[in-house]
Amino acid sequence: MTDSVLGVIPARGGSTRIPRKNLEPVAGKPLVARAIKQDDRASALDEVLVSTDDEEIRRVSREYGGGVPFERPAELATDTATSAAVLEHALSWYDEHRDATFDTVAMIQATTPLRTAEDIDGAIRRLRETDASSVVSVTEYQTPPVWAMYEEDGLLREFFDGNYLWTDDEVPRSQEVPTLYYPNGAVFAAGTEAFRRAGGFYTDCTVGYEMPPERSIDVDEPFDLHLVRALAAYDGD
User: Fold this and answer.
1) Cβ burial, residue 44 (10 Å; 0-12/13-18/19+)
2) CA dist., res. 102 & res. 190, Å (int)
3) Of 4, 39, 156, 231, which is least packed with CB atoms within 10 Å of its CB?
4) Which CATH class is domain 5-141+180-235?
């Protein structure tokens, strides 16, 4: 395939903090189903699959129109298995079983359910327009992490150097704090060769695709799930 993009939705059955997380509903759809629908509406993805080890996730994915062409091997469904290994398995499966190769591979995590199809297309577009090797969706920190503190012997200590914390004179010197971002988990994409060389999406030429906080919540704790449900209900999504 020429200039083609493979989208992979990783959705294993196990989850530590929220059992069966990928099947939890948000606005009437399981998380994995929301990712499938977002991928369907995105124009930048040529092929999309759900990589899972779980029979129920396979069934639900197919009910919502998702492709599940293989069962993820058990060794790639553990807590220690890496996302890079899961995507490499998907790329290799297509090469071996469909005689199909892709120029770009993208990971669309089900756990960032308020992302939109436009975010997926926008991230892929940024990858292409900048001639970067990879793109990672990011969000600006609302509270600068340089204000971080830790406790030592019962006392608060500044974690970072630079005197970024509040003082008695001024609160805070926000204009002196650099704009910092974090990867929000919504979209990762890279040229396949660059992905393989780097062993993941962080290459020596990675650009960011910025998303607003309200679309960037990554469901990791039960509180996150409550929050995305409230926001989805508010937006009517």
Assistant:
1) buried
2) 11
3) 156
4) alpha beta
Per-residue pLDDT of the chain (237 residues; tens, 9 = 90+): 347 999 999 999 988 889 999 999 999 999 999 999 999 999 999 999 999 999 999 999 999 999 999 999 999 999 899 999 999 999 999 999 999 999 999 999 999 999 999 999 999 999 999 989 999 999 999 988 988 999 999 999 989 876 777 665 555 555 667 889 999 999 999 999 999 999 999 999 999 999 999 999 999 999 999 999 999 998 777
- How far, in Å, CA of 96 to CA of 63, rounded? 26
Neighbours of 140 (CB within 10 A): 15
Measured in whole angstroms, how far is the alpha carbon of residue 129 from the centre of its chain? Answer: 21
* Cross-sheet strand order for the sheet of 206-210: 47-51, 5-10, 104-107, 181-191, 134-140, 206-210
Sign, CA dihedral 69-71-72-78, equals: positive
Q: Kindly state the DSSP code that residue 69 receives in the 8-state scheme.
A: -
- Determine the number of helices (DSSP H) and then strands (DSSP E) in the chain: 6, 10
Amino acid (1-letter code) at residue 178:
P
- pTM, two decimals, is 0.93
99 torsion bin: left (phi>0), alpha (psi -120 to 50), beta (else):
left
Alpha-carbon separation of residue 68 from 78, 157, 222 (angstroms): 19, 50, 27
* Domain spans, the chain: 5-141+180-235, 142-179
Length of the chain: 237
- CB neighbourhood size of 176 (10 A): 10
